Amino acid sequence: MNKKTEQNLPTVSQDAQPHIQDFCDMQLFERMLEDWSISTGLAAVAIGSDGCYVSKYHNFTDFCQKLTRKTPEGLRRCTKCDQEGRGTYLCHAGLVDFASAITLEDGTVLGNMLGGQVLPQQPDEAKYRATAQELGIDPETYIKALRKVNVRTPKEIKAAARLLSDMVNMFVRTSWNSRQDAKTLLERTHIISSLSKIYFCNYYIDLRSDSYLEIDATPNIHQLAGKSGKMSATFVKACHKFVQDAYQKDFLAFTDRKTLNQRLGTKTSIVFEFINHLHKWCRSMFIAVSRDNAGKVTHVLFAIQDIQEEKEKELLVQETLQKSADAANRASKVKSDFLARMSHDMRTPLNGIIGMTHLSLGEADMQRIKHYLSEIDVSSNFLLGLINDVLDMSKIESKELQLHPVPFKREEFLSYIDAVIKPICEEKSQRLIVDVDLPPDYVLIVDKQRLCQIAFNLLSNASKYSPEGGTINFLMQGKLLQGQNKIALHTIIKDNGIGISKEFQKIMFDPFTQENRVDNYEKRGSGLGLAITKKLMDLLDGTIRVKSEMGKGTTFILDFTLAFTSLAKLQKKQQSLVETAYQDELFLDKHILLCEDHPLNQEIVQLLLTKKGMIVEIAADGKLGLDKFTHSSINYYDAILMDVRMPVLDGYETTKAIRTSARKDAGTVPIIALSANVFTDDVDKGLKVGMNDYLSKPVEPQKLYRTLGKYFNESK
Question: Does 511 score more than 80 pLDDT?
């Protein structure tokens, strides 16, 4: 609102006249406006005859004051509404405002009451998002502020506006005329009955005589109390009839005339909420209307409002917040349990690796050394599996995991099961029955790693949770889809193990979850296997279902569709690849600069490269690597293997320095990242600074050779 009186309001005379603040108790005036705003949910402010504010802002919304009016266009629209609006009106933003004159009985205009800032109905948020864009306001901030704006029906708004107007005028006129007879005051302020639009029970009470006059009441209350009577006796009867037992004592204390003056004190109103005989929430209120010269309240308004809907909304909000808090607590506990398990599961293979390494160092017997190395290999692979599970889950949740479909023969898949799964089952003398029924002469197009990962997760679980000598069935049936060049796969994995409870089946695909059972404790893993399997099936646009009975076993049912190619086409393509494939001679005498700070990693990569006849130079940090490249002859290095995390200069900085140097081969020498950082952001960052490729640790020899061979072939 503007600092000067708006044009839509009655013109205030410029002749000498009294000012509201000159004869009214402004402290009481402010409290009256504040309590009215609190009880109605509407905004209010008073403007004097000089066009300046007489009162504070009461219940003004952030939506109006801090957002809409803070923009040039919003202020322009608001000012236009202020100037053109009359009485109760709808502003440009869809909020209801009102304006009414503050006058004496002789018609002298002392100022104006402005207020409103409420919605007449639930807003169309899409419309307000569009308005926010027009005004240059963040839509989410605008909608958040909008949701805090109270909603009132047009009848409630008009009634509240009339009530405020009459209360203010009554107060001002009473202050101007000093004291008036209560009956005359009631007659002159007949609009006080507007309370009935908001409250279903309204009484005007003379505390001095312990008497009341009915303004408005529901039929059942009117039948009990009548049009007038004694306050104390009637309130007791009404309490026992209309107030639920649990609230009667407090209600009687609230309506006690003997203590009411003390409890009101300098307040304009006091409030008490209770549940009535119909099990609905109600709000009762005493409003101080007049006081004697000593400040003692002589007359009050008593009203009761139905707030059941308000309470239900509050309860809903509380329940929602509680559910959110419970879910957050559950998630926190689940993740804490996961971290504890991971700590245990990682320490176990690490202890094995460290212990067996120590034993190997002091052992001369080659057979024993081979045994120790075998145990180290098992522990290392287990540890790597745990790490890969965590990385896979992270990639899945961040939507970074992508499938890389390639041809996958039936025989390759069976070989994987035979080499990986069968030994697991044989350790427990379990029978593994495999039946892969796929159409002959056809090859699946699928991400090999992820399909094997799905099979491993489910089959290894089946073995883990099945008894010694148990039976595990793996059935895969394929059906060609006519005219689609696709094959529908129906897969069943069945065991006769301990089974899964009905309760856990509901959450078994959630990350970090495991069934907490005594017979299951020693078999617990990371809790990610099933979650990863479910996510991989989602990526394949497939489904996974489970049937299980405690003590009898579990069956997983998978259905998904894959593309395929003919064996003849695949063989032709493979022959072509063989003809262009790199030979070991390709690697002979190639000069490789290895930028790596970790001694063990240096040793491993150097051995892998020298095994193929390559010549390796090592730089223990990025600065040394840059110096070696800078001081070498042009095209001396055939490739650079670059660790990312290094002292002095990291891999990104070193690569950027190489690419921006003045050397002729600065832009052509292949730079291949070797890093444990394998997330999309890391890869993108590496490619951005000039790396040609990105390989993950632990180093996969064949992948390393293929990558180097690709660039060596290109340089021929």
Answer: no
Neighbouring C-beta atoms of residue 252, cutoff 10 Å: 15
Distance CA 165, CA 100 (A): 7
Residue 52 pLDDT level (bands cut at 50, 70, 90): confident
- To the nearest whole percent, how much of the chain has pLDDT over 90? 35
Contact yes or no for 465/520 (Cβ under 8 A): yes
Confidence of residue 470 (pLDDT cuts 50, 70, 90): very high
pLDDT tens, position by position, 404-442: 888 888 888 888 788 778 888 988 999 999 999 887 777
Listing DSSP states for 376-435 in one string gives: HHHHHHHHHHHHHHHHHHHHHHTT------EEE-HHHHHHHIIIIIHHHHHTTT-EEEEE
Minimum mean pLDDT among 169-178, 241-250, 546-555: which range?
169-178
User: CA torsion sign, 690 to 694 to 698 to 701?
Assistant: negative
d(CA 65, CA 376): 69
Give the chain's domains with CATH numbers. Answer: 1-195 (no CATH), 199-306 (3.30.450), 319-397 (1.10.287.130), 406-572 (3.30.565.10), 582-714 (3.40.50.2300)
CA angle 587, 589, 595 (to 5 degrees): 85
Q: List alpha helices for 51-153, DSSP H.
A: 62, 72-84, 125-135, 139-146
pLDDT digits (tens, 9 = 90+) for 341-382: 555 456 656 766 787 787 888 788 888 888 878 777 766 766
Residue environment code for 134-162, b if the CB has 16+ CB neighbours within 10 A, otherwise e: ebebebeebbebbeebbebeeebbbbbbb
User: Do the strands 431-437 and 471-481 form a parallel or antiparallel pair, or are they unpaired?
Assistant: parallel
CA distance 713 to 691: 18
State the Cα–Cα distance between residues 254 and 239, nearest whole angstrom.
11
Which are the contacts of 405, defined by CB distance < 8 A and separation ≥ 6?
A: 445, 446, 447, 563
Q: Is the pLDDT of residue 185 over 50?
A: no
Q: Say how many C-beta atoms besides its own lie within 10 A of residue 394's C-beta.
A: 13
